[in-house]
Amino acid sequence: MEVLVANLSKRLRQRTAQQFVLLPVAAVVLSVSTSVCAQTAATNSGEKTLAPVLVIEKAIAPEGKDAVRATETGIGKGKQALRDIPQSITVVTEKLIDDRNLDTLKEALHNTAGISFLAAEGGEEDIRLRGFSLAATGDIFVDGMRDPAFYDRDTFNNDRIELLRGSASMLFGRGSTGGAVNQVSKQARAMDESSVDVTVGSHGYKRAVGDFNIQSGENAGLRITAMATKADSNGSGSSIDKKGIAANYRLGIGTQDEFSVGLYYLDNNNGMNYGLPWIRANGNETSNVGLMTNVDPNAYYGMASDYNKGGAKAATLTHTHRFDDGGELKTTARQGSYDRDQRASAVRRQPSNKDGTSCQTPFVTGSTTTRQTAVFGVLDDSTVLCRGTNNKIQDMQTTYVQSDYSKKFDALGVKHEMLTGIDYAHEKFTNYNATGTLVKANTTVGTPSNGVGVNEDLRVLSVGRTFDATALGLYVQDMVQVTPELKVLGGLRLDNFKGKYNAAAATAAAAAYNERSDTLLSKRLGVLYQPSSTTSFHASYGTSFNTSGDTYQYDNQTANTKPEGSVNYEIGAKIDSADKRFTTRLALFYAIKNNERNRDPDSAATQNLLSGKRHAAGFEIDVTGRLTKELEIYGSYAFTPIAKIDVGAPGSVAGVGEGAGTRSSLTPKHSGTVWATYQVTSQLRLGAGVNFRSEQTPNRNPGWAAPSFVTADVMAEYAFNDKFTLKANVTNVANKLYADALYTGHYIPGAGRVYALTASLKF
User: Fold this and answer.
1) Taking the model in full, what pTM does it have?
2) 54, 114, 570, 697: least buried by Cβ within 10 Å?
């Protein structure tokens, strides 16, 4: 971590002084001008004014470990009450993460409605929200700053996870139609409080998490969180071996000038289950395509030498200045380094002579312009499976700097809550080619985890392509309180994105170099009607865009491709119970993506990219909080009856694949989760819940759907005293076999039944 901090200092010095001086200038000028206007008005009136006194609240707000219900968020730039944001937000608190034993970001997102997963190459690389791609374009954030999408994230340092639904470009710049995910890190506090959690479970699962907060002064604290996890399997075939540590030091907590230094390190050396093929079983060519139902959810058919290594290293510096007039200027800089080294096997059925002799011949045949069919035949323990070679070796270096200014003031006879800022990003991405790998041995359905591997020392790496991008954004947003019940929000953001792409090749003539620059404007408009302290109704409109460089690559097609554009409309409500212990969120949404790229490795060479249009509409409801003193509930449900491709890819057939009239892939009509706990006695607490998804089609809609599923989880917790508790979890009680992440040629099964026992000690 010392090297990381040194690199950060070096990179910051290398930037021109002008770049970084400009970052907070707009915010500071605005702050000064507001203060001067107020002082001038007082002077002109002849009144004598006293020097302003800064009063800062030092009370410690309840943490997410105390409730599943949240009332505030920082995802909208600056801390705001959820009821004051005219857009839907679902919050997964630390208590819900602990109750349901959620170790990864992906597991936490399973506990939100409207989410589905593409079977990508590890990490949370392609998440779908409201039927639109989310994480592939970098819509995952840590404390409001972008977080590259190609490593497996752990929850050990998360205070909560916030899911903003709908267009987010006005807040974050380039982004998708679906929304944004913000991971809120644990912050140091001026108090002494520590805890240790130790978990053991099925499949050799062992996990230890420590959370240590030490008060180092009246307004200073150091917080260190650490994690180590090992398991033979995660319940769906992938081994786990990871460790992480994060540290945060805050000085001047709650005072006029607050400083924060954060360090983060995560190292993954996990296994890799690339997925299982879709099949037509029992020799019936007309039968429905389905899952390999005669295998255990924990079955693994990849090589013993397959792995998914990688991780993240980041250093973050933050300064917050609170002005005497109530304004606040927060400036943050982060230097990050991320890497992935993946060796995986796409499992396929050994083809018959009719279908070819190469393992790369997929279970699925056909093209994107026709309904695809799955290879059929009798499937039993003797069925031969072959393994493909799927390498992905990448790294990325990032520098992010952002400065945000917020201020509440009166002007023109109304109250304003203004937010303005500027942010800068520099991302350098490298993709490596791997050659010299060995041919992998076949296996059979009846012999999973057969222990066969290959010699990784024979792999030779070379640089395949590089991507160097910079982005600069300026934004301003104002919420005006027109009447005591009515608020109107408006925001604009201007972004400039530049990217340079290089692709290596055997000859200079075959090498590729492309670059592109885009300048775009994003808009946000919202209306809030709040007739009481327990009710808030909203309507909102927002735009978003995705540049061609969002996937960290250009080629001869994308270099000339303009950004995608999206629009989101939403009406909704947030309603609290009379005692404010329970909240219901309701929303109706309508989202449109215009000029959609139709890029996929199987079709990019022949299809134009800005050629599609799709839309989705639906209803969502979240319920969180306490119905009674003993009963606490968290629920999230989404109904998406409309998810339609309006204009398909060139050459596509109407109603087929990605053709016009087809339902969008990875968009179940029904999705959600319910979790409830009941305090039986002062010491015993019981919990139970379900996760569910209706049927959904894999990407490019091959003509069949993954079956719907419902899984159930249970929990029992016993508190021996206020320091020591013991908690037992059973996940997927019925050992349900289901397809969790989907791709055209294969699916990744969800975890089977998993037992876990956690001992927690507070001191």
Assistant:
1) 0.87
2) 54
